[in-house]
Amino acid sequence: MKPNHTDAFCQNFFIKGGDFNNAGSVSSKVKDILNDIGIDSDIIRRTAIASYEAEMNVVMYARKAEFKLRLTPASIHIIVDDEGLGISDIEAAMKEGYSTATAEMREMGFGAGMGLPNIKRNADEFKISSVPEEGTTLEIVIHLN
Amino acid sequence: MEQYYHSLRIDKDKCTGHMKCMRVCPTQAIRVKNGIAEISEERCIDCGECITACPTGAIVPLTDPFGELSKFRHTVALSSPSLYAQFGREILPSKILAGLKKLGFDDSFDLATTCGEVSLAIHAYLEEYKGPRPIISNACPTVVRLLQVRYPSLIEHITPLEIPRELAAREIKKKKSKQYGLKEKEIGTFYITPCPAKMISIRQPAEKKRSHLDGAISISDIYGPVLYAMENIEKDRFRTTLEGMCILGISWAVSGGICRSLELRNSLSVSGITEVMKVFDDIERGRLRHIDFVEAHSCPHGCVGGSLTVENLYTSYNKIRKLIETLEIEQVSVCADYAKVIKRYQEDYFLKAGKLKPRPIKPFGEDLSVAIRKRKEKDKIYAELPQIDCGACGSPTCMTFAEDVVNGEAVLSDCIIKKNQLRKKGKRMKLSQIRKKLGLQTLAAPDVPDPDITGGYTSDLLSDVMAHSKPGNLWITLQTHQNIIAVAKLKDLAGIIIVNSRQPDPETLEKAESEKILLLGCEDSAYRISARLFNLNPSED
Fold it and tell me: Which residue, of B288, B313, B346, is where some domain finishes?
């Protein structure tokens, strides 16, 4: 059963690819919202990590993305839909340590190949689909109970 | 809701509602209501930023007065290393400690020694630690409070080792009671503090256990007396060298000092509450897992920047640095005995009793669906606000104001900009409401219909009223002759208010009845009644 619409908090954010100056701002806002609503701290931490990694993937590998947050008393639902390079080998990308980051990104401390595995580890449900040269869609669900 | 003790109090007589405190508060804990600042107990983390910001000295730190000393049989002053930084370079710590004794303490204790021991203990702890990194220092009580309130998920990162002042107080009580045959509670241990936050960590330790310290005296209170006392100390009462000073511990007074003493490859130090929050945000996102230890101080440059210090923080920062350099050059040995510390560490001597619990603020209560609904409302209200964070409403930001409105602690019209907009497109009031609210006396034609009032017009020149009043206006005038009824009729005015308790002519009353024009009277002057009407009826005319 779908939760009553009035019980859902929905907000969409825009993430710009390559914008390292503002990288992390969307996941910060998501964290503030969860804090305000009084979500359990462990769930906030997991959501913060998952949404930060998802945001950074967009900043590094995509032109732009829409980050959709939907929060109900039962779950946190995040969809990140980007337009960008896409992933040709999802299975490889899900392995820890696999990375296509450039030397510059690594210098900034990114691209350790932990992003997607980290999201998966912190999510209760995780779906990924991608079309190379078009974009990637992530779906992250974290249960509240 | 649990009661939280705080080390700050607002002196209502001194507070002039400058709002400076409200703007600097990092946790948005201050609101200014009716011109007086109020602190939310739940949100306050005792950082003391407001004390420094207040131009009228209305925020009073609740430290202990000297008089407390007389409650104990034996008293010991525990000096924070930051106290040494308050005096000129030629005044050595040993002389300052002697000064404290001269002031009336039975003994004075150099906390740098214990700080050094704790440094070694942290080092040992880090070597065997396997949990999530980085470990966060607990030396600054404000930082611990900040973590409890804003970063509850990072609580497990806080070092479980006891802080030096507590360890020292525990040890002193044990030792002195044995030495003098007294009970532990007869030994008074007083911390000389650079900030008010240490005061709450004594009155209400974050782990909810009694502190070993009996009180805290602020550096700013004791500075003058110590300075004076030091002038009268005989030369032989203190050492004139740095012998016995613990180089590891001295550095605890400044930001980066603990990291320095740990000699770690991957450590990080940060100071100033907003900077600290940036680092904690990164830890929470899992960005700093490669760092072993984070030393965070709420005050800029560490404890020397505390709000209860006397000396300019840059001067005192340098004094500590020079002290460390001198100790290095003179090769004064590190005083903490490594073997002894390790042995004690293994016996859990350094372990903190009690467990730190998170203390998250839940502005919208416990019920998730209610909280979600209120959070949505907050966004909706925020979208309508000017978003300039002017603070004139008494809340620090438009965002916090929106939250206050949702929680019923403020009303939309507290926003001065919003109030004007509301006034502009304001709903019109009924004539009957206005009559009731202004307490107007009915002089003639009471049974007219009850139209919406479009505004008011105040003038005694009939031609002016003919030219500028608008249909549905209430006309305020001192004229009482019958021509006013004709004007009101021609212009479709809602009624006439006659000011200064003037009585209309009998013909006027008669005409008002026959033309069905409402005549009202009041004691007020035209100026006063206009102002009252304007405030009452938020309309543009």
Answer: B346
